Amino acid sequence: MRIVIGGAGEVGRGVAKALRSEGRDVVLIDNDTHALKEAQALDVLVLQGDASRREDLEEAKVSDAEVFIAATQRDEMNLLACGLARDLFEQANGDSGRNLMTIARINDSELVEKETEDGRLRRWTGTDHAVCPDIRLVDDLKAGL
């Protein structure tokens, strides 16, 4: 399974490490050379670029992926990257029956709560799942009680 991750910061690297430990084929894209240098130790393909640029997603071969994860610190960039990844995938694969799952890290908990309830987020951004670190932390803490 090929997974493309936009954002090689702490979150992106953590996700990449976990996925590699499961034997997944992982590609990390980021324009921060320091983050990419740290990511090189993860045994993943590391590309310098911007996940919100069509050309860089093409280079990462998002059209061959099964999952795209936008894990930067910027909500807008993550939503744009998911939309672009979905568009590139659909252009390349047409009606082949293959699907691309898109996941965006979203820091705005209100956006996640309001827009994910009825599928609006997917319709207007191409994002299947939104993950909010704050909501996730609260849920994990509740589960631990």
Descriptive keywords:
145 residues; alpha/beta; Rossmann fold; six-stranded parallel beta sheet; 7 helices; 6 strands; 48% helix; 19% strand; globular
Describe, in plain words, how this protein is organized in 3D.
The structure is a single chain. This protein has 145 residues and is an alpha/beta fold. The chain has one domain: NAD(P)-binding Rossmann-like Domain (Rossmann fold). Helices cover 48% and strands 19% of the residues. It is built from seven helices and six strands, in the order βαβαβαβαβααβα. It has a six-stranded parallel sheet with strand order 3-2-1-4-5-6, sandwiched between helices. It is globular and about 40 Å long.
Under CATH, the topology is which? Rossmann fold
Instruction: Write down the CATH class.
Output: Alpha Beta
Architecture per CATH nomenclature, i.e. the level-2 architecture: 3-Layer(aba) Sandwich
Low-pLDDT runs of 5+ residues are: none
Give a short summary of the structure.
Helices cover 48% and strands 19% of the residues.
Q: What are the SSEs and their pairings?
A:
Blueprint: E1 2-6, H1 10-21, E2 25-30, H2 33-39, E3 45-48, H3 54-59, E4 67-70, H4 75-93, E5 101-105, H5 109-116, H6 120-125, E6 129-131, H7 133-144
